[in-house]
Specification:
434 residues; alpha/beta; Rossmann fold; Beta-Lactamase; 2 domains; six-stranded mixed sheet; five-stranded antiparallel sheet; 15 strands; transport; ATP binding; P-loop_NTPase
Length: 434
């Protein structure tokens, strides 16, 4: 076994009409990492988890833990499992469930120290900032808190490997963030996590490496940094689509948009027309549901111009947050899974799950911001960021020239300069694609 590989799944196959079959599964999981296994419902995730847990035994292949065949004794001692159905005892208290790992005793006495049981539970919850009454029975807690108790119980047992099966099922955003904190605490202490989920966006958020299981086979394994740069590749693996035709189609759409932008900006249009054009094009390129472009007087801290594309009861992004994003001069990305998500808006962002912002910088005291709104969790690629930042820069030039120069020969010359810039970008993209 390679250095730091703690678990190796070697040529694992399983055939049974009662479960999704697995075929020649090969995986290597390193100590201290969060290894995500993703796949759609019916891809074989549950089968694999049950094999790891020892529930299914009639499989072909080998499970190697630290170079040795995985046996039940080691599994019970070194593995912790979070299944979709809770293993907590609902009639017992929270503290009692946590203490089932190993009840604290009164010195050498066989009697249980209930004072220590309660103290241990309180300490565990304080560590993660949880307000859970440890004297309550599990059955009296909300399902979200029950799941957190179960995960903390697993972590307190200090196993070498935690296998978490759909850990965020039925959790709200705040609870999910607490879950991530617990997972990070565990891995920082040297633990290893196998994170099994059908939610690929979760894997991008928490994992170091991602394996995609499709119809019982491993379609591919990606480092998370590579997956973030090219999420389309991850999605294609997830959907069982190995073709790049869709990506090529997207590239052609972007190039077509840039050509049209060049033609548009080489002619004479009003400022609002230019902003509307950019709002529509950027939404199309980035796959956004809606877009707002604001022009802001930074000195007066007021919005002086605004266009909205496909606007439908969008939440209002706070003005001070917009100015802060512009000053940072970086792509800004936020999803409902982030703790501070709601604090960025004037009202509750009920139908918005993802927000992406790009600053539109100018040489005057004016500045702009492109706000893209998504109804689902969206992960941008490195290529999409380049497209977005390029169009944002050109929008800044167009807006500045339109406002400050008026309808003059200089304006037309400026727009021709933009056209030349965009055509250079098109050439670079074409070279890159070839």
């Amino acid at each position: 076994m390679e250095k730091n590989v703690i678990l190796e799944i070697n040529s694992l196959s399983f055939y049974n009409n009662d479960w999704t079959n697995l075929e020649d599964v090969l995986l290597k999981i390193c100590k201290g990492e969060i290894f995500a296994l993703i796949g759609e419902t019916g891809s074989g995730k549950t089968t694999l988890v049950n094999i790891l847990a020892g529930i299914i035994n009639d499989y072909e292949g080998r499970l190697l833990y630290k170079d040795y065949l995985l046996v039940d004794e080691v599994r019970k001692r070194e593995f912790g499992f979070l299944f979709e159905n809770s293993s907590l005892i609902k009639e017992l208290s929270v503290a009692e469930n946590l203490a089932l790992i190993k009840y604290p005793r009164r010195g050498i006495s066989p009697l249980i120290s209930w004072k220590k049981v309660n103290k241990q539970a309180a300490k565990a919850f304080d560590k993660f900032g949880l307000e859970i009454e440890h004297h309550k029975t599990i059955g009296d807690l909300m399902p979200e808190k029950q799941k957190l108790v179960e995960i903390i119980k697993l972590v307190l047992a200090e196993p070498e490997i935690l296998v978490l099966h759909e850990p965020t099922n039925n959790l709200n955003v705040d609870t999910i963030n607490i879950l991530y904190d617990i997972i990070n605490y565990y891995t920082e202490k040297g633990g290893t996590v196998i994170y099994v989920t059908r939610q690929w966006e979760e894997a991008l958020k928490v994992a170091d490496n991602i394996a995609v299981l499709t119809k019982g086979k491993i379609a591919g394994v990606l480092n998370v940094d590579d997956a973030k740069k090219n999420p389309q590749k991850l999605i294609n693996l997830y959907l069982g689509n190995s073709s790049n035709q869709e990506a090529e189609k997207d590239d052609m759409g972007v190039i077509d948009s840039i050509f049209k932008a060049a033609e548009f900006l080489a002619s004479e249009y009003e400022l609002k027309d230019i902003l509307n054009f950019f709002a529509e094009r950027v939404s199309g390129i980035m796959g956004a549901n809606s877009c707002i472009i604001d022009l802001i007087d930074e000195k007066a801290k007021t919005v002086i111009n605004r266009v909205l594309y496909n606007h439908n009861n969008l939440p209002q992004l706070k003005l001070d947050k917009k100015i802060e994003i512009i000053k940072n001069n970086k792509l800004f990305y936020l999803t409902e899974r982030d703790k501070e998500f709601k604090s960025f808006f004037e009202d509750d962002p009920v139908e918005t799950k993802t927000l992406i912002c790009a600053p539109v910088l100018m040489r005057s005291q004016l500045a702009g911001i492109i706000e893209l709104y998504y109804e689902n969790i969206f992960v941008y690629s490195e290529k999409e960021w380049k497209y977005l930042s390029t169009l944002a820069r050109q929008a800044g030039i167009a807006v500045e020239d339109t406002r400050l120069m008026g309808r003059s020969a200089l304006l037309k010359e400026s727009h021709h300069r933009i056209k030349n810039n965009l055509q250079s970008i098109i050439s670079l993209i074409s070279i890159q694609r070839n």
